[in-house]
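Write out the 3D structure for:
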Amino acid sequence: MKSIIKVSNVSKSFLLNPTLFNVLSSKLFPNRPQAVFTALRSISFEAYQGETLGIVGHNGSGKSTLLQVICGVLQATQGQVAVEGRIAALLELGSGFNPEFTGRENIFFNARLLGLSHQETKQRLDTIVDFADIGPFLDRQVKTYSSGMMLRLAFAVAINIEPQILIIDEALSVGDAAFQRKCQSKLKQLKAQGVTLLFVSHAAGQVIELCDRAILLDKGELLMTDTPKEVVHSYHKLLHMSDESEREAFRAQIINGRQQSSAAQAVRNTPNAQQSQTHWTSDLIPKSTVWYAKQGAEIINPRIENSQGQVVNVLVAGETYSYCFSVQAERDVFEVGFGMMIKTINGVEIGGATSTKNHEKRIDYLKASYHVDVCFTFKCSLQKGTYFLNCGCSGIIDGQRQFLHRGVDVAMFSVIEDNQDATGIVDMAISLQSKHHAKAH
């Protein structure tokens, strides 16, 4: 594979007291001791053409500093960065924009900073405007924009300058869910075209869904490079270790390579190893949830449970789970039915179930103030990715069936293991037989 970004032994330090005297002193007398903060320590890695590389780490681990060094915004204190191709970067919302300019003026201004001529930008203007979809705000000053509109405009410009490298630092955490899905769809398209993507996010679901590999930064050091799932797993363990000695011991294990080998050995030696990987993470909380108005009942606490009754949102393909919620009646209702739907991150409906059409599975009568617990049990036959869940209930009031309550994107989950023999979104358990025949004489 062709290396597009090569980071070699990069370190970056900042003066803790950057007065004019101290800055001049550090330049004139580089060997004189200075109080410094080291943000990056001997970082080395490569990113390849068409690869999406996730960069994971807690706040202050050095992620943003590393991206700024790669983009050339900051100069490394030590080491080298080799980059091949045009870079488009979303490092900070509003960077490269003049708040006094309109959105249209800033398209030309920002595109020029990214290397496009005025004529090239004019040729792509309609495409940029259509993707940003900010309506009349296009001709208003950027200082009047919300963070979501700023993201729309910045992302639309960045993807349309035909970059060879696209760098995104937490930008997709801003904006509504529909635009986030639109962005993720475009990122997959760019990847298919050979664009290399560096992606920083605290959201485990996004990293696992979008990235081919991931690196883990902690205290300015690169601790590991592995699959997104393994890196996210180690990141979460570090994040929740309050004891410093325990944390340092785990860091040492990762650095020395013992963590990966011991984890692999544990999987081989545990009879039900895949089930033990099932867990819940606070990163998989949907931001696009929409609840419709209540009309006789309220749906409460939608969740996924594993076979042990534990609430989870990181699933293993092939295992059995239950999608559960409670329905609290606010008035007397007859012939109550329930429904659910699983969707992809792009909103494609994969499958669901309803009891509304089956009178044997409906509840004949639900009295006001009573509640019912509902569980849809399913085998996870989905391939690796991130998915959303809808839920709803309906009943007969005053002789007519109507929705009592329903919600869209009320829960989300990721699938972290799948069947390598399956293709597409759903594993249909298709078996393959082949027979080898000798050449006929």
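The CA atoms of residues 93 and 150 lie 6 Å apart.
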